[in-house]
Please model this.
Amino acid sequence: MNKIRMLIADDIDETRSVIKKILSLEDNQFEVVGEAADGEEVLSLIPMVNPDVVLMDINMPVLNGLEATEKITNDYPNVIVIIMSVQAENEYLKKAMFYGAKEYIIKPFDYDSLVETIKSTYEKYRERQVKFINNEPLRDGKIITFFSSKGGVGKSVLALNSSIIFSKQNNMKILLIDMDLQFGDISIMVNKYNQKTILDLIDEGQIDSFENIKPYLYKYSENLDMIFAPSKPEAAEYISKESIEKLLMQVKKQYDVIVVDTGINFNDNTLYVLDHSEKIIFLSTMEIISLKNTKLGLRVMQSLGYEKDKVKLVINKFNTSYGIGKKDVEEVFKDNIFAMIHDEEKTVALSINKGEPFCEASKYNKSKIGKAVEVMCKDLLGE
Ligand SMILES: Nc1ncnc2c1ncn2[C@@H]1O[C@H](COP(=O)(O)OP(=O)(O)OP(=O)(O)O)[C@@H](O)[C@H]1O
Ligand SMILES: [Mg+2]
Model:
């Protein structure tokens, strides 16, 4: 068996010496390839010494173990981090695992538990590493969220069709997540029933690796995957912000764009997603109530500290035959309207009822709404 290549990170010299000694007593099982006294040293050593495992103290100067762990997870996903900490640092331990540490060990530890922890963690993750190496390069997904302060304005229709447009761009991998956890209907819009949902994923799956998330994805096309919403409204309460956080952290590495469809309930989950979105498509229709709620909603976005550029106002079901004209809307929102999408009831209703999104090639060639969505998506990508 190859020796396990170890990098030991602790700011106390003596701790490093003791660990080295313990590891050397195990015949030919470990090779200490590097020692570091702070997080930054760890990061600079990794490319040079190519460790299998980093044994990392949490409290270190310059860059602490938590931040270093997060960087390693992102930049060197094949390196296994095991955190060392004292009992009182429970909260930090949780954080460390969240940032991608694979295991932890509480100080002071004895000889056997140290050796055992390293060996078992290494064995467990080595197999996954091999898969990872054969995989494509990691991506850096941007979240684009469809949101509104009134229901029924077209979030789901536009989130779905935008995802399709994005997925047709060169070599872009897209994930659409239906985060309307109570009344999500993306699955119906693509004519798929009885599929696994986000609730199954959170209930049964381990959201700590993409391999474990994969079985819960619906592959709509080569470059577009989907995660559907639960089929029962009451399921929403079982899905915590922490699960959403973990899920997004994993999928961001696998996709270029993560499109999120939301419901209208402004809860912790929605807020978390909005906070972490690159862009928010804030949808309104031209109906007076929708316009009023949108104005209020945009103010909430402002009070949340979102930059103007992050929130894109899009007027859907654009139609001037109902007493409110283009000028009126422009006056209400000044020059802040990002796009206007036509009211095309027949196309949209047909496409929903047939489970065939209108941005699919054949239909989309004929529809104005398809073109408008395409322009909006390209403008978004352009930014
Ligand atoms: N551009 C459009 N032209 C005509 N009808 C549209 C358009 N966009 C959406 N619709 C219709 O509006 C209705 C609501 O659309 P959708 O379900 O996408 O809204 P939503 O904002 O996701 O609603 P909810 O808040 O309930 O999730 C649907 O019946 C759809 O057919
Ligand atoms: Mg919806």
The first helix runs from residue 13 to 25. The chain has two domains: 4-134, 142-382.
